[in-house]
Amino acid sequence: MSKQKLIIISGSPCVGKTTVATSLFESYENSAYCDGDWMWCVNPFSLSDKRLRNGDKNMSYVLSNYLNSRFDYVIFSSVVVMYESIREPILRDIIAKDYITIGFTLTCSEKTLIERHKKRGDDNEISFEWLKLEPYPNDYVINTDDKTVSQIVSEIKDIIEECS
Fold it and tell me: How far apart are alpha carbons 53 and 40 in whole angstroms?
């Protein structure tokens, strides 16, 4: 039997993380999905708020719980795991053993990001800062421009199979 897989999907807000992660989760039997963005949903939001790191502990706990429950695929999406300083402690605090981690950073053009914000009805100012961040080291980078969700999921699954 192959090792369990922790599949991390990160990227800018509105790049398609949740949509892709949900579709990927639904495509695999014996899988679990954790949307990390909901574990640090606070008002007002600020990345410099040290209390946000408490949400990271929740992410580590849930991911550990899913892996220890023997799900073959654990899909985890979050915007904040683009940052090494956040992803590393989350991964370090996972108590499960004997699994592999495969990371993906989704990206798109500024034009596509604007279109997706409008489609979502998001009236907030669009920040392109996230698009300009370097992808997490060793993540597979997937450009989502002009691709369907099915195409992106297929591309991700092909990479996961290669990693098995």
Answer: 8
Q: How far apart are CA 150 and CA 154, in angstroms?
A: 6
Return the beta strands (E) in 12-117 as ranges: 31-35, 73-77, 99-107
Given CATH 3.40.50.300, say whether it is the number of domain 4-163. yes
Quick: pLDDT tens for 87-146: 999 999 999 999 999 999 999 999 999 888 888 877 777 778 888 999 999 999 999 999
Q: Is the pTM of this model over 0.90?
A: yes
- Class of residue 132 by CB neighbours under 10 A (exposed 0-12, middle 13-18, buried 19+): exposed
The band of 38, judged by pLDDT with boundaries at 50, 70 and 90, is confident
